[in-house]
């Protein structure tokens, strides 16, 4: 049985290698800057489009165009995120059992502000870039704990939620390994019903709602206690993402 599985894995790998070559040939003719992109990045876009070279290429070229326009300096500065940073809602520390970086989002601290959805989108890109910089060689994915404790209707920001979802699905595919949603209040159900139809099937399969009584045990299945934040029964303090 194992030999059969290994053969299938090898065949899948060869198919991916071939398609990566085809995709690279095409995208480099369309956008020469593609030559600077590694094969792992191309593979993520291919996997997001079920190895369809044409669709993956279109998705990737759209990403390159967006990145140049949205992040013209190559990075997002904290000076562009004053309102977001002040809310102290995103933290980055530790990793799961496979070495994937672990982020914690305190959603009850998110409120709309004068910076609007554009600043929020810049913050999401800033978060991703910070996370990617912490990844060990060969790792491509990360885990997030989305904590909804004290979340209320004042925190509900549909434009921000959909913007974040679009970034994850359209420009950073195959990066999120799992999103644990914890301490979800009953009133979040109404917000979830609005957002859910916009979540593609691949992303839906990565979202796990955790019961309060099973919180620590569920997280410990993926994360060692030494890497788990103190607030969830672990040993690490929460570190604001801008301080990492």
TrEMBL record:
Positions of the CRAL-TRIO domain: 78-240
Pfam families, per the entry: CRAL_TRIO, CRAL_TRIO_N
SUPFAM superfamilies referenced in this protein's UniProt entry, alphabetically: CRAL/TRIO domain (SSF52087), CRAL/TRIO N-terminal domain (SSF46938)
Record SMART domains: CRAL_TRIO_N, SEC14
Domain of life of the organism encoding this protein: Eukaryota
PROSITE patterns, sorted: CRAL_TRIO (PS50191)
Protein name from the UniProt record: CRAL-TRIO domain-containing protein
Organism classification: Eukaryota, Viridiplantae, Streptophyta, Embryophyta, Tracheophyta
């Amino acid at each position: 049985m194992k030999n059969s599985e290994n053969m299938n894995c090898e065949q899948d790998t060869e198919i991916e290698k071939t398609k990566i070559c085809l995709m690279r040939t095409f995208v480099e003719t369309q956008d020469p800057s593609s030559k600077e992109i590694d094969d792992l990045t191309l593979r993520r876009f291919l996997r997001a489009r079920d190895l369809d070279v044409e669709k993956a290429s279109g998705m990737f070229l759209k990403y390159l165009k967006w990145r140049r326009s949205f992040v013209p300096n190559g990075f997002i500065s904290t000076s562009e995120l004053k309102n977001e940073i002040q809310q102290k809602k995103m933290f980055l520390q530790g990793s799961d059992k496979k070495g994937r970086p672990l982020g914690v989002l305190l959603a009850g601290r998110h409120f709309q502000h004068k910076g609007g959805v554009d600043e929020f989108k810049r913050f999401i890109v800033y978060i991703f870039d910070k996370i990617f910089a912490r990844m060990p060689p060969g790792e491509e994915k990360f885990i997030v704990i989305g904590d909804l404790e004290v979340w209320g209707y004042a925190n509900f920001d549909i434009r921000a939620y959909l913007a974040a979802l679009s970034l994850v699905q359209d420009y950073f595919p195959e990066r999120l390994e799992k999103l644990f949603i914890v301490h979800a209040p009953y009133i979040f159900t109404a917000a979830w019903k609005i957002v859910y139809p916009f979540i593609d099937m691949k992303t839906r399969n990565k979202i796990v709602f955790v019961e309060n009584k099973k919180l620590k045990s569920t997280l410990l299945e993926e994360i060692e206690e030494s890497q788990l934040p103190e607030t969830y029964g672990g040993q690490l303090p929460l570190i604001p993402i801008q301080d990492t």
